[in-house]
Amino acid sequence: MSTPRVFVIRHGETEWSLNGRHTSTTELSLTPNGERRIRATGRALVGNDRLLVPGKIAHIYVSPRHRARQTLELLGLNLTNPLPWSLCSSNPSQSSPQSCPANTTITPLIREWDYGDYEGLTSPQIRALRASKGIVGKGARWDIWRDGCEGGESPREVEERVDTLIKEIRGRWHGGEGEKTGDVLVVGHGHILRAFAMRWVGKKLDEGPAFLLEAGGVGTLSYEHHNIEEPAILLGGAFVVSAAESEAEDPKDKV
Length: 255
What we know:
Layout: E1 6-10, H1 15-19, H2 32-45, E2 57-62, H3 66-74, E3 103-106, H4 123-132, H5 144-147, H6 155-172, E4 183-188, H7 190-200, E5 218-223, E6 231-233, H8 243-247
Parallel strand pairs: 1-4, 2-3, 2-4
Antiparallel strand pairs: 1-5, 5-6
C-alpha cells in the first residue's frame, strides 16, 4: 500500500488576492481567470495516471467560504457523492475507473485565519494602522505568524484549530481507527494552509514558514519511511503508473 498523503489546495484567484487584501470572512467568488486556472489545474493533475488519483481519495475537507467550495467544484474530480451544499449531485451517479467516491466535509477548522480588524487591508495598510495606534510588536514590522491579528486570531489559536484537523485526518484516514486509509484533500486558503503544513511537521507558527502557496496552488504532505510518526512535506511527487503499464514499457526506456 502506498503512503497516504494530504493534498492542500488553495482556492483560486479572487479580486482581493490579486491586490493583496487580507480576506478571511468576506465572501468573494473567483475571477474568470481564477476559474480558468483551477480547471487547468484539474486537467493537469487529476486522473488515474496523475498526481491526484480520484479513486485513492478517502475524504475531502473544504472551508465554508464560497471561494474554496467553488474551487473544489472546478477541479474536475468526478465526484460520485453530492457536495454538502448541493441538493443533488451534478456528477455521474455510476462510478467509473476515474470517479472519486469520497465524501466531502465542510469544516470551519480550515477556514482562513481570522484577520479581525485587518480584514480587507493590505500589509502596508496594516502596518500603518498599527503604527497609528502605537502598537509595537516583538519585531520592527508586523508579522502575522508572530503577532497575530487585532480582533482576530492569535498564532496559538490557529495552531489549536489546525491541530484538531490534523489529529482527525491521522486518526480516521491515515491508519488510525478509521475504516479506510487513503489520500485526503484539504481545500482552503493561503495563510491557514501554510499554518496547516507547518503544524503537520510539528513546527510552531512563530517560526514563520519559508514557503509559499499560490492562489490555486497544490501542495503535498505525507510521511517518511511509510511511518505515520514521521510526518513530512513532500517537495515533489511522481506521477502514478500502474503495474500493467510498467510491464508494457518500451524496452528502450529500460536501457
